[in-house]
Amino acid sequence: MIRNVRRGLVTRTSIIKLLDSTTWITTSDISKQVDVTSHTVLYHLRNLEREKVVERNAEGRGWRLGPYEQIELMEFLAPSRSKRKKKS
User: Fold this and answer.
1) Is 57 within a domain?
2) What SS3 state is found at 6?
3) Is residue 1 part of a domain?
4) Residue 70 — left, alpha, or beta (φ > 0 → left; ψ -120 to 50 → alpha)?
5) Which residue segment(s) compose the domain that 50 sits in?
6) Is residue 62 part of a domain?
7) What's the predicted TM-score (pTM) here?
8) What is the Cβ-side half-sphere exposure of residue 84, based on CA atoms within 13 angstroms?
């Protein structure tokens, strides 16, 4: 499980905001946009990969959001959305 230290949480959030589920982006490109070292980005990406939030390109160059986990998240949120609608 990922420890949520504030600095790490801010970095991971910035990384996730750059990613989408269709386009591959390299560690180097993420590093430049988030303004942290490539090593730091790779550390967070590997942790996010272990948690199945992101996936690595099979050729080893590039990362993107994991589409399967996003579907599960939407399914998880769906019942709570319908409950809120019923209460209104």
Assistant:
1) yes
2) helix
3) no
4) alpha
5) 6-87
6) yes
7) 0.69
8) 5
Closest CA to 18 of 10, 6, 26, 30: 30
Burial label for 62, CB within 10 Å (0-12, 13-18, 19+), is: middle
Residue 35: how many other CB atoms lie within 10 Å: 8
The tally of CA atoms less than 13 A away on the side-chain side of residue 22 is: 0
**pLDDT in single tens digits along all 88 residues of the chain:** 556 667 778 899 899 999 988 899 999 999 999 999 999 999 999 999 998 889 999 887 899 998 765 556 566 656 654 444 555 4
State the chain's mean pLDDT as an integer: 81
Check which CATH number belongs to the domain holding 33 and give it. Answer: 1.10.10.10
Count: domains in the chain: 1
> First and final CA of the chain: distance in angstroms?
36
